[in-house]
Amino acid sequence: MYSKAYSRTVLIPPLVWVGLFLFVPYLILFLYSFWQVRFQVIVHDATSANYAEILHNPLYLSVLFRSAGIAAAVTCACLLLAFPLAYYVSFRLRTRKEAVYLLVIIPLWVSYLVRAYAWKTILGSDGVLNKLLEFAGVIDHPANFLLYSPFAVILTLTHIYTPFVFLPVYASMEHIPRNLMEAASDLGASSSRAFWTVVFPLALPGALAGITFAFVLSLGDFLAPLLIGGPRGIMISNIVVSLFGAAYNWPLGAALSFVMLVLVIAIITLTERLEKRL
Amino acid sequence: MGCLLSIRNVSKSFGSTVVLDDISLDIAAGEFLTFLGESGSGKTTLLRIVSGFEQLDGGEVWMNGERIDQLPPNRRGVNTVFQQYALFPHMSVFDNVAYGLRARKVPATEITSRVEASLAQVNMRAFSKRFPSRLSGGQQQRVALARALVNRPKLLLLDEPFSALDANLRKQMQSELKSLQREVGIAFVFVTHDQQEALALSDRIALLRHGKLEQVASPRTIYNVPRSAYCATFIGHSNLLKARVTDGVARSGGLEWPADPAAGDAVFSLRPEHIRIVADTAPANPDAVRFRGTVLTQFFAGAQELLEVQCEGGVVLQVRAPNKGAILKELTLEFPASKAVRLES
After folding, report:
1. Chain B residues with CB inside 8 Å of A183's CB?
2. Please, which residues have CB within 8 angstroms of residue A150's CB and are 6 or more apart in sequence?
3. What is the reported pTM?
4. How confident is the model at residue A248 (pLDDT cuts 50, 70, 90)?
């Protein structure tokens, strides 16, 4: 064990860092959320009008709900892709496990922007998908509903966040002792029964961690909707960005940010509790 | 008792390594049979072929007149107690034991009574709501036994079940296992590398070496009449005497004893405890071989002394003699000629 003095000393730099660059900005943001804009000037008059505006103006709530819906769809899609993949890599692959694992990781090394733009070139009206469908004779003129839609956002975010679900699920599956599967089979369970009674419950904490990542990260995403969402694919973070930008309503933007922050903290606390119960 | 399980000409290789080489073995109903061998002898692989976790390369496995080597593990009617118990960590003791019955769609009321009866059998009824992580090694072992036996298998396979237990608990679990086996009357196939455990528990021992059966016999037979030098030294200690047999007499460095008449070079096994120290003046025993020797080393081992004795002819023998509390030097010794067992070369 280290001495108390030593523990305190090494704790100082990270605490200062977090305090200076996380808590102080949040505090400033929090203060801003109670101020208001009058004649293009931010006035330091305390008011709860910003929060009231968020609750009463249907625009904000509907975009918030749509964002949550998109995030939920992304989370489901990620889980549906990542869980079977993790099971296959962890339990079925005997050789080349690392190679497949690496294939899942590699996209994480590619810039987010590059991946989002890649989908633009695939889904666009002059894109790879349309050309392919035209070539195959499925369609005779380019389908333009692919790009600039919630669907495009869900697709892109699913692609980006699937590894975030795969990794914790895979890690928890790798920790399942292999003889448990043999025991299940020995006791008369079919392989699907063994999956649902042994693998699934034991991989659930990992899945929960993964879906928390995917949901929280896609809820707050603003680049994918900006690049490929179009007007119908707008999400709550895009509104925050515009409030801090062109709209010049920092107090409302701050309030909206705080609503999201509280939402996200609530989700993380909830899943953490759930995880402990499993 | 009839033959329950029949292993016929089973072979298995991993890559270019032959793990099992043409093994044939019958197991009777209600029998306690042990696969004994060092690590790498193929004993665990043979067990896993019976349970269905390994596929055989050649040969057949039959149970009750039905060929089972192509069946998946969940349709074989055998159950296994795994080396590290393999209890499901997310289920209570009750749910662990009920797992096999639920998989076989046994009615719920029957499940409750059978699980409780099975837990009572291993004295774990009070623990049915506990989770495995809250149990000691011995308790987990008992749950693993109950989980297997509740399914009423015709054959129970045990893969080194006591290897994780400390020595005292091991002894206790051994005797519990033996009485449990008598009680349930199910055939047990037990894998171990511990020869003491094998001798204490088994009706028969199948001694494996490099994927081949060295000897299959009762513990007494395998100890008293080992078939090969490996059997003689792996199970217990033995003096291996290289001798030349002519005219029904075996000769080895000054020792002579009557042997079966097949002439030629042969190796004999003589257990250290079969050599006795006798008084010089004792009357000659016609069935015994008497000789004089010099003690080279003397190890005190509690009730016994372990001696290394050099005979007049030069052969060095290990002798296990009762502790008389004296330093021994020059001795007269004898052994019954029948105890020198001729080994197969």
Report:
1. 80, 82, 86-88
2. A66, A70, A229, A232, A233
3. 0.81
4. confident
Stretch A238-260: mean pLDDT: 89
> Closest-CA residue in chain B for A205?
B90
* Chain A contact set for B72 (CB, 8 A): 185
> Which chain B residues are closer than 8 Å to A189 by Cβ?
74, 99, 103
Per the CB < 8 A criterion, the answer to whether B272 and B322 are in contact is: no
**A179 neighbourhood in chain B, CB within 8 Å:** 82-84, 86
Q: State the Cα–Cα distance between residues A154 and A229, nearest whole angstrom.
A: 9
The answer to whether the CB atoms of A187 and B82 lie below 8 A apart is no
Work out the minimum CA distance from A158 to partner chain B, whole angstroms: 31
Strand order in the sheet with B17-28: B17-28, B3-14, B58-63, B66-67
Question: In this structure, what token pair is assigned to residue B177?
Answer: 């296992």
How do beta strands B187-192 and B155-159 pair?
parallel
* Other C-beta atoms lying within 10 Å of the C-beta of residue A277: 6
A56-98 pLDDT per residue, tens: 888 888 998 999 999 999 999 999 999 999 999 999 888 888 8
> Measured between CB atoms, which of A180, A186, A278 is closest to B79?
A186
Is any Cβ of chain A less than 8 angstroms from the Cβ of B147? Answer: yes
Q: How far is CA A167 from the centre of its chain?
A: 14
Query: Residues near A13 by Cβ (< 8 Å), separated by ≥ 6?
Result: none
Are the C-beta atoms of residues A122 and A114 closer than 8 Å to each other?
no
A195 contacts A84 by C-beta, under 8 angstroms: no
Three-state secondary structure call for residue B240: strand
The residues that bridge with B156 in the sheet, in sequence order, are B79, B188
Instruction: Give SS3 for A165.
Output: helix
| DSSP SS3 for B306 | strand
Residue B75 burial by CB count (10 A; 0-12/13-18/19+): exposed, middle or buried?
exposed
Taking CA atoms, what residue in B is nearest to A277? B90
Q: What SS3 class is residue A48? A: coil
> Tokens for A223?
């680049």
**Using 50, 70 and 90 to split pLDDT, how confident is the model at B149?**
very high
Closest Cβ–Cβ partner in B75, B86, B99 for A182: B86
A214 touches A229 (CB < 8 A): no
H or E element at residue B232: helix B229-234
Q: Check: CB of residue B89 under 8 Å from CB of residue A197.
A: no
Phi, psi of B127 (to 5 degrees): -105, 15
**Quick one: tokens of A128?**
């790879």
